[in-house]
């Protein structure tokens, strides 16, 4: 394709480092779509004949079939997907194939293909996020009133409900989905027609090719069009935040399903055994989701590091963009699907969660609040009194609701029997009716609100 000024071929190792076909063959759909948009614009502008256009389109359709069926022979010598397709086009249709690349360069071609790919990846990620959010919201609706311990510092803090806990993740994933939607809007400009870097002298219609490929408009600057990859980095940044959320949820699944917590179990479908310890049920999928975050965040770092310091316009460094981005999105797709699967599969153990919620003096704050409400004690004093009550309960080895009224009164003689009404974990959770609080009625309403919407931003 570019051998005219060369008298001999590349060294084997040159070919090895230069070829990207093993990676970028995944762009074949986008490459053919881009070529079709380009060729029909060239014909409409009178730059090539209708006959050439028809021949090229037919040839591209045949190539699509060959790739789809596995018959296509990819060649490393032809470097990348663009030259593999163009060379095959020449085999099939002969001379008109050579007119396809008029007013185009591989620089705008690959930038276009890659944007189309990342745009689709963003759309697919949003769909996958929606599926996961539905799974979480449905579980939350089923367990809107299932009391569990809420933690800070992984120490028992206050009772919450499982539904509330799961809906916290729905909020995170909704923001993630909106980040992909936002990135998509910004990336949706067409590089095609920027040519190598400077634009072209041919009377091309960049708006026509942009529209044909579903872009909102052409990129306004040809140098920017061929040398920017911030669209991919922005998408990978959204992917990294999603991965961070997924890994936190995965970590909780690991904790909850361990026998020490026993808050939930995963069925055989999402557990694995040990080859030596017959009793084991390991949450491997959750652990791998937790770890996939490493790959996804690494892919963002990888591309940031490749791009930093690159002078305008195109440099071959940028060929490495695809391996990083494909790896990040492949890992994300797997992690999202596995997490949705685990959430659907998960059986919460409501009794164990409730039992755990009663441990750790989780309703101590409710006593302090009661002292404020019933006795008009300033909160700071109430906190102090309650601390003494907890210390007493600890000395006696009982939970707060098992401490006698006489014991309570030994610390503050004004305490009445009414304090016991706030000591159960259910009463504690049910009392959190403030906006965004964990009261089961709130949670039910929120779960239904999520389930009623289509969940995309
Ligand atoms: N395979 C190349 C890439 O992925 C295509 C662009 C090549 N352009 C060039 N001037 N060598 O970046």
Automatic annotation (TrEMBL):
Residues 361-428 form the Argininosuccinate lyase C-terminal domain. The keyword Lyase applies. GO terms for molecular function: lyase activity. Keywords: Lyase. The keyword Lyase applies. Residues 4-297 form the Fumarate lyase N-terminal domain. It comes from the Eukaryota. Belongs to the lyase 1 family. Argininosuccinate lyase subfamily. This is Argininosuccinate lyase (ASAL) (Arginosuccinase). The lineage of its organism: Eukaryota, Sar, Alveolata, Dinophyceae, Suessiales.
């Amino acid at each position: 394709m570019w051998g005219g000024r060369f008298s001999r071929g590349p060294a084997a190792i040159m070919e090895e480092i230069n070829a990207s076909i093993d990676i970028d063959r995944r762009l074949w759909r986008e490459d053919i779509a881009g070529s079709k948009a380009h060729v029909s614009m060239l014909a409409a502008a009178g730059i090539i004949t209708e006959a050439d256009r028809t021949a090229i389109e037919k040839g591209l359709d045949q190539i699509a079939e060959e790739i789809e069926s596995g018959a296509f022979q990819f060649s490393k010598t032809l470097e990348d997907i663009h030259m593999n397709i163009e060379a095959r086009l020449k085999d099939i249709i002969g001379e008109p194939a050579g007119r396809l690349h008029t007013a185009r360069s591989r620089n705008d071609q690959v930038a276009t293909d890659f944007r189309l790919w990342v745009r689709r990846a963003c759309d697919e990620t949003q769909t996958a996020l929606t599926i996961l959010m539905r799974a979480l919201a449905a579980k939350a609706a089923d367990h809107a009133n299932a009391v569990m311990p809420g933690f800070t510092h992984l120490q028992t803090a206050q009772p919450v409900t499982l539904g509330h806990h799961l809906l916290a993740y729905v909020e995170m994933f909704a923001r993630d989905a909106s980040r992909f939607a936002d990135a998509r809007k910004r990336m949706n400009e067409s590089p095609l027609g920027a040519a190598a870097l400077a634009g072209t002298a041919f009377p091309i219609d960049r708006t026509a090719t942009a529209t044909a490929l579903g872009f909102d408009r052409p990129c306004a600057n040809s140098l920017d069009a061929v040398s920017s990859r911030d669209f991919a980095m922005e998408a990978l940044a959204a992917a990294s935040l999603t991965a961070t959320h997924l890994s936190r949820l995965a970590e909780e699944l690991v904790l909850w399903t361990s026998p020490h917590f026993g808050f939930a179990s995963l069925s055989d479908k999402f557990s694995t055994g040990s080859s030596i310890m017959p009793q084991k049920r390991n949450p491997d999928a959750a652990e791998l989701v937790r770890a996939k975050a490493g790959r996804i965040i690494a892919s963002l770092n990888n591309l940031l590091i490749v791009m930093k310091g690159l002078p305008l316009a195109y440099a071959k460094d940028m060929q490495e963009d695809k391996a990083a981005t494909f790896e990040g999105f492949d890992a994300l797709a797997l992690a999202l699907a596995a997490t949705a699967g685990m959430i659907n599969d998960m059986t919460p153990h409501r009794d164990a969660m409730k039992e755990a919620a009663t441990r750790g003096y989780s309703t101590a704050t409710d006593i302090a609040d009661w002292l404020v409400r019933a006795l008009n004690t300033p909160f700071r004093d109430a906190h102090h009194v309650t601390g003494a009550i907890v210390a007493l309960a600890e000395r006696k080895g009982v939970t707060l609701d098992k401490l006698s009224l006489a014991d309570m009164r030994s610390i503050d003689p004004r305490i009445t029997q009414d304090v016991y009404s706030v000591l159960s974990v259910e009463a504690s959770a049910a009392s959190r009716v403030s906006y965004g609080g964990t009261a089961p009625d709130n949670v039910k309403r929120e779960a239904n609100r999520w389930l009623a919407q289509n969940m995309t931003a």
